[in-house]
Amino acid sequence: MKISVSSDMDEPVARLLVEELRRRGHEVREHGALRSGADPQWAVCSEAAARDVAEGTSDQAVVCCWTGTGASIAANKVPGVRAALCTDAGTAEGARRWNDANVLALSLRLTSAPVLTEILDAWFTAEPSQDPEDVQNVARVGRLDAARMVS
After folding, report:
1. What is the predicted pLDDT for the residue at 146?
2. N or C, which end of the chain has less CB nearby within 10 Å?
3. Is 65 an annotated catalytic residue?
4. How far apart are the C-alpha atoms of 32 and 36, rounded to whole Å?
């Protein structure tokens, strides 16, 4: 799977994230402070990773900033992106299952190495729900994106 990763700071957990994704066999595209010469501002690098997903050059993305909040806000401004800020495995599993989230947002401050592994395990194991109500909700979010693009 192709995964774009962005971080506004070159923190150990961000580097560990990239290493862990590659160890799991994913092709990683780095943005922000993780790539030499790239703009590290959270809004810029999170948008870049999210655009990779929206444009189909990456299957998913992981966006990081100190709290994870700014990265998730910026990513969610890109039509077609459903970014979820996850601080634990249960939230990551639910975001993939019920929201069909395609971008994982992480806090550089809160995410330890063991928690990162748990979140990634849950994220990559969970499948989007086929329950009609869940499918309808995800479709509604897609319509909100479409309406925003028209206005």
Report:
1. 83
2. C
3. yes
4. 8
Give, in order, the Cα–Cα distances in Å from 95 to each of 3, 35, 99, 102, 138. 17, 28, 5, 9, 11
Determine the distance from the C-alpha atom of residue 143 to the mean position of all C-alpha atoms in its chain, rounded to a whole number. Answer: 20
Other C-beta atoms lying within 10 Å of the C-beta of residue 125: 12
Predicted confidence (pLDDT) per residue in 45-102, tens digit: 999 999 999 999 999 999 999 999 999 999 999 999 999 999 999 999 999 999 999 9
Give me the DSSP letters along the chain.
-EEEEEESS--HHHHHHHHHHHHTT-EEEEEETTSTTS---HHHHHHHHHHHHHHTS-SEEEEEESSSHHHHHHHHTSTT--EEE-SSHHHHHHHHHHH---EEEEETTT--HHHHHHHHHHHHH------HHHHHHHHHHHHHHHHHHH-
The residue type found at 118 is E
Q: Which residues contact 101 (CB under 8 A, 6 or more apart)?
A: 82, 83, 84, 95
Question: pTM here?
Answer: 0.95
